[in-house]
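# step 3/5: fold
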Amino acid sequence: TWKWVVGPMFLYLCERLVRFWRSQQKVVITKVVIHPFKTIELQMMKKGFKMEVGQYIFVKCPAVSKLEWHPFTLTSAPEEDYFSIHVRIVGDWTEGLFNACGCDKQEFQEAWKLPKIAVDGPFGTASEDVFSYETVMLIGAGIGVTPFASVLKSVWYKYCHDATNLKLKKIYFYWLCRDTHAFEWFADLLQSLEAQMQERNNADFLSYNIYLTGWDETQATHFVVHHEEEKDVITGLKQKTLYGRPNWENEFKTIAGKHPGSRIGVFLCGPEGLADTLNKQSISNSEADPRGVHFIFNKENF
């Protein structure tokens, strides 16, 4: 038995040693940004740190807990000179991190007072393959939108730098949220992308649909009253917020009709139930003919 056990155990110990060494490397918090609805953004730097879009890291804050490691998706782009995560305050550990960073105080916090942070990673996800397609569908549910913040930033950097060599030509972005609070920090990024694309006369590069799934009668009435305004009253975007859930069959058929003969990447960060629905739609809307349209489903669940 030991002949079969010693090899895997040796590889496991090597992997743990590498992760321990990486976690001991110095990490500098360069900026802490407080976003609405108790969400904070940590911008950090680490020597030799290299990332790809949609990857995630494990984070430990000894000032909060000396043993706990928590995974967070990177929301920065590889082209930026820092890496960042967005942390929503929903439990004891995140509350401790919020207080350790001085976010509970009104006065300006000096950088040297910020807590020490240990980072292990980055680790890969399915979102890294987004640049392998000419057309992609990005679907984020709630806080599952975080990997697509990195994707959209990186796409825009690449587009501005050398659009002719960028294989990706069209993005369909869907964001599903239960309440309006979740829109607040991510809407700023979408507003920036929307304005810059209009300046470059390429507003069609990114098509996005935002769905508010936890709507009630009051919100529906508010939606009807303000629907004719130039910008959406919730997000401040020109694209109006939609109420309810998407009709995925119609969405897939519409996109298939616009891109015949294409391989379309479908990327999800969301719950397992939504993954099953999108996987079935990807299969049923893909043609048997190799020259026809094909939807390639990729997922990461939380």
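# step 4/5: annotate
The chain has seven helices and twelve strands.
# step 5/5: archive (pending)
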